[in-house]
Amino acid sequence: MIDSIARAQGHGSGLFTSPHLVTFRERIRVNGEMIPQSAVTSGLTAIRKLVSDWEPHPTFFEVTTALALKYFSEAEIDLVILETGLGGRLDATNAVQSNVAVITPIDFDHQKWLGDSLEEIAGEKAGIIKPNVPVVSAPQPLQVEQVIRARAAECEAPVEFINETYDQTPMALHGAHQKQNAALALAALRAAEINIDDPAIVRGLSSVEWPARFQRWDQCTFIDGAHNPVAARALASTWRESFGGQLTSLVLAILSDKDLRGICEALAPITDHVFLPRIGSERAANPQELAKILLNLGVKCQVGGTLSRALEKARLRTTPMLITGSLHFAGEALAHLRGEPAAFEECAQ
Fold first, then answer.
1. Cis before residue 19, ω within 30 degrees of 0?
2. pTM for the complete prediction?
3. What is the DSSP letter of 142?
4. 100 near 73, Cβ under 8 Å?
5. 302: helix, coil or strand?
6. CA Rg, the chain, in Å?
7. What is the secondary structure of 73-102 as a DSSP string?
8. Strands 248-252 and 271-276
9. Angle between the 260-267 and 287-296 helix axes, to the nearest 10 degrees?
């Protein structure tokens, strides 16, 4: 959203996000356009030569961050939006001096690396806060807010929690959580003192593109990358906002390191029937394991088969189809729906 609003104002922008959905090049964009393959090739070649004898060797994400920063440094842009990877404190993006730190809602995720409690996870996320740099945060659980405030005080950084939502004009993205995201984006632009006027806000929010975030593929097919319980609950709420009490035919695949029961519990109330295909990733949860959870929740499901077959079966039902469970799965599904399954570039990070 920050990128879309800034570009609507006429600012040149660089955007770094992760993970990608279909192709690696999605992660690095200038003025909305993906990095060219030639720039990926030349940039990675230069970085590879530089770090060939480093010990420890840089991680995939660190190399990707370096590639993005190199590409942005050679582009004519006014601002860069860097999304952290797993956390904040030890994240490669945290090597960059920022003008504002933005913290979205924090919940349980990536516990293997970030910690087993909300306080521990918040401590890692709050590591992006730097001395005297303003902080804007979404509303947080009390224990998370306390961690953020303590880190901000330690850094003498002004902190603002954005409790309102943006309701003034129509937005391209659906759901109450996106209205909160819009308010957070606007607060970040103000805190960074980036000149934005009202027409740019309207244009930016009405035209923002964010694939696999309640994305309507056609009249009866929707795709969302909800990959943890809080995202799944937001997805279920958005479904109800759009369809009332109508249920969905769910095509579901979740990565094995996620909270399988929490995601299934969030989606079960909006689900009429679930299809559980086997997908390409070795990290995918076993469909049989998901079926046990869903059956215990009273949800009918069909197990196994290819993604193509699951989509065919879901289309035969009278209820709209929702494809979800992870951003990885959303990317695989998007490539399939585009008729380019071979274009899907799997990546664990």
1. yes
2. 0.94
3. H
4. no
5. strand
6. 20
7. HTS--SEEEE--SS-STT-GGGGSPPS-EE
8. parallel
9. 50
Residues 118, 144: contact at Cβ < 8 Å?
yes
Q: Number of C-alpha atoms within 13 angstroms, CB side, residue 273?
A: 15
Residue with tokens 């996870």: 121
Which is it for strands 221-223 and 215-218: parallel, antiparallel or unpaired?
A: antiparallel
Token duo for residue 91: 């994240």
Residue with tokens 């399988």: 260
The one-digit pLDDT tens for each residue of the chain (349 residues) are 999 999 999 999 999 999 999 999 999 999 999 999 999 999 999 999 999 999 999 999 999 999 999 999 999 999 999 999 988 899 999 999 999 999 999 988 888 889 999 999 999 999 999 999 999 999 999 999 999 999 999 999 999 999 999 999 999 999 999 999 999 999 999 999 999 999 999 999 999 999 999 999 999 999 999 999 999 999 999 999 999 999 999 999 999 989 999 999 999 999 999 999 998 888 899 999 999 999 999 999 999 899 999 999 999 999 999 999 999 999 999 999 999 998 999 876 6
Amino acid found at 292: K
Distance, first Cα to last Cα, the chain: 23
272 neighbors 249 (Cβ within 8 angstroms): yes
Q: How far apart are CA 133 and CA 88, in angstroms?
A: 15
